[in-house]
Amino acid sequence: MADTVAQHVVEIGYGGNERLVMNMGPQHPSAHGVFRAILTLEGETVVAVDAVIGYLHRCHEKLAETLTYVQYPSIASKTDYVSAMTAELTYVSAVEKVGKIDVPRRAQYLRVLAAELQRVASHCLWLGTWCMDMGGALGGGATVFLYAIRERELILDLFEALTGARLLYGFHQVGGVRYDLPAGWTEQCRQTLNLIEQRLREYEAMLEDNPFFLVRTQGVGVISRELALDVGVCGPLIRGSGIDYDVRRAEPYSSYGEFTFKVPVETAGDCHARYRVRMVEFRESIAIARQALDGLPEGPISSRPGVKSVGQVRVPKGEGYARVEGARGELGCYLVADGGAKPYRLKWRGASFCNLAVLPHIIPGHKIADVVAIMGSVDPVFGEVDR
Amino acid sequence: MPPILYHAIAAFVVLNVVIGLVTYVTLLERKFAARMQSRIGPYYVGWPHGWLQPIADALKLMMKEDIVPNHADRWVYNLAPLVFLVPCMLIFATIPFAPGLGVADLNIGVLFFLAVSSLEIVGLFMGGWGSHNKYALLSAMRAVNQIIAYDLPFVFVALIPVVLAGSLQMSAIVAAQSGLFGWYVFYPVLGQLAFVAFLVATLAAENRVPFDILEAESELVAGFRVEYSGMKFALIQLAEYAHMIGTSFLGALLFLGGWLGPGPEWLGPLWFLLKAMFVFLVVTWVRWSFVRIRVDQILAISWKLLLPISLVLLLATAFVVAYRSAGVA
User: A174 and A44 in one domain?
Assistant: First the structure.
């Protein structure tokens, strides 16, 4: 069995002599999908963890070889179904990079707008599920969950008005975006952003003034700066560990260079630091979305005509890597084109996949209750991990 | 009427009233929680506002398949819900709902209540042990840890009104609280502190969030009752809620003056119920706004904080009472 081969990644020695191997997942309320952690326990303390993934493998990369450049963006959104917009964006960016296809400025701004709204929606879901991991479905965590879902719904309403879909959008196409803003959408968007910004203060009041929340998060699951670099975590995790890195600023794509925003950095590296980073990101995303709404240029929304046939887009021979700062970190897409209507090979770099690798390093030594808190703070989406 | 017949009838009535109350308290809690979470809660079963929902739930649980895990210790597993339920029902025996209205107004009522209510741990541990499930086992271990840690402060806090009233009899404690602002929650400083400590200890003794580490559905799925289904699950739920309501009644008796209140005497039981529901809703309010804390933190809070505080409060109360009686004499 593969399970026994990869056991005990990090093991901490404790004095006790009786151990219990407990299987947490793949079907478990806090598995965030289908994660399986084989925990070795000594009493309440976890001494070793063996993380097993792959239960949600859907051959995404192979599928990309059989679908054309026109078809795949709607499949790309299924890799990270919680923030589908950024996954689509990554794919079309890679295609545009290889095919040297221009994107009109209005389309670039719309992409930024969609990506930032998606980040807010994704962080809403993260906040809710993470609190539910710590507070339980029959407790205070569920309250935060329902509040956060309420706000996420508002953004999904916006996306529904924009694209007609609430989860998997198909908003992006090679060379631009597929839909322009409908009438009245800008005003609705502004109101939603104002409302969410106001509600964020309520969450912070509810969580940060709560000593129980603080004792559950501070000093729990510390990722040191060195460990973060060694393992190669990304997104809010690496910024929570004191490394000032954001793809949006390090390698601006889709005219991110024209926006002003802060990249939050916390040095503690624990669950609370990651929480703080994401709470600031909420606000920065709202600020970026406002800037995009204010400065939205006029013009076409795509440099290519609308979809008429699936084989319409052909990309010359070549290869390229595009990366995007998704809600969970650096989402990358490596594309090899052979001149046809389909890619020759596609490779996803999943942010959750890289982030998840840190779990066996930080979980040993914590209590069982902390396992779910730490896992929630990593914010994995298993569609993106297993692909 | 021979006394035994009277007690039998009273016990029958109280038992049924308690079961009915428990079913409807679940609806109350669900509605209350729903309001806090900007939801509506049960709505469709029974007009208006889903008042038939508890009945529907009970019927559903009765009709569910009763599953016994293959490797479960059948005797222990099957007995556990009963062993859990009986003490939780027994605690109502000593609660008087009005002067002279109750099963048995023992002269050691408070002691009986405290002793019996901590017996529930036996059933709980049996359930966790007999299920042959690692989650259930861990939960049972946690339960023993927690109950031992929190029963001590709970007893000490509950003794404060006893010391103030000078009696272990429930009706005597209520009688001692008569008069304007006579309730022990209005007793200067000591009363308020003791009431808060009582609420905290109650939360822990009832295994409610933030102290619900034995249920802990995000880690241990459902804790000791993960393998139970159907009627056995219903019995466990019933026992938990009965315990919760019993403790709320105790809180109302000890600190909020029981059935005392304005209006004619026959309003007494209503006042009592209202006060008990107030205690219950405070506990529910806490439940739906906090996150759960870890097992080591729970133990630390009990042994390092709550136990010393409750001991000091009890000692201070004793000093005050002794000083006053010395002054009178």
Answer: no
Residues A382 and A347: beta-carbon distance below 8 Å? no
Residues of chain B contacting residue A377, judged by C-beta atoms under 8 Å apart:
none
Q: Is the dihedral of CA A122, A128, A131, A133 positive or negative?
A: negative
Number of domains within chain A: 2
Substitution target from A40, A134, A271 for chain B, most B beta carbons within 10 A: A134
> Which residue of B lies nearest to A138 if distances are taken between CA atoms?
B288
In a domain, A63, yes or no: no
Q: Which residues contact A170 (CB under 8 A, 6 or more apart)?
A: A73, A74, A77, A88, A163, A178
Residue B8 amino acid letter: A
Min CA distance, B40 vs chain A (Å)?
A: 12
> What's the per-residue H, E or C state across A304-361?
CCCCCCCCCCCCCCEEEEEEEEECCEEEEEEEEECCCCCEEEEEEECHHHHHHCCHHH
The answer to the question of residue A119 being in a domain is: yes
- Write down the domain spans for chain B: 71-328
Tens of pLDDT, residue by residue over A15-40, are: 556 778 888 878 887 777 788 888 88
Contact assessment for residue A337 and residue A64, using Cβ atoms and an 8 Å cutoff = no
User: Could you tell me which chain B residue has the CA closest to the CA of A23?
Assistant: B134
CA distances for A222 relative to A64, A98, B278, angstroms? 37, 39, 41
Band of the pLDDT at A8, cuts 50, 70, 90? very low
Interface predicted TM-score (ipTM) of this complex, two decimals: 0.78
The partner residues of A334 in beta bridges, in order of sequence, read: A321, A347
Q: Cα–Cα–Cα angle for A168, A173, A177, nearest 5°? A: 90
Tell me if A21 is assigned to some domain: yes
Cα B11 to its chain centre, rounded Å, is: 19
Query: Domain containing A112: what range?
Result: 69-386
Instruction: Please check whether residues A149 and A186 belong to one and the same domain.
Output: yes
**B150 to chain A, closest Cα gap in Å:** 18
Q: Of the candidates B213, B219, B287, which has its C-beta nearest A372's C-beta?
A: B219
* CB pair distance less than 8 Å for A216 and B291: yes
- Are B93 and B104 in contact by the 8 Å Cβ rule? The answer is yes
Find the CB nearest B295 among A135, A146, A369: A369
Kindly list the residues from chain B whose CB atom is less than 8 angstroms away from the CB atom of residue A28.
221
Q: In the numeric block, which tokens belong to residue A340?
A: 């046809």
Query: How far apart are the CA of B99 and the nearest CA of chain A, in angstroms?
Result: 37
- Whether A64 is covered by a domain: the verdict is no
Model confidence at A277, pLDDT cuts 50, 70, 90, reads very high
Is pLDDT of B101 > 80?
Answer: no
Residues A10 and A156 in one domain: no
Structural contact between residues B25 and B18, judged by C-beta atoms closer than 8 angstroms: no
Query: Do A381 and A299 share a domain, yes or no?
Result: yes
Min Cα separation A341/chain B (Å):
46
A205 and A132: one domain? Answer: yes
- Dump pLDDT digits (tens) for B302-319: 888 889 999 998 998 888
Within chain B, residue ranges assigned H as helices are: 3-36, 53-63, 74-90, 109-117, 120-130, 134-165, 170-176, 190-205, 230-255, 268-287, 295-300, 307-328
Task: Please name the member of B39, B209, B217 whose beta carbon is closest to the beta carbon of A29.
Answer: B217
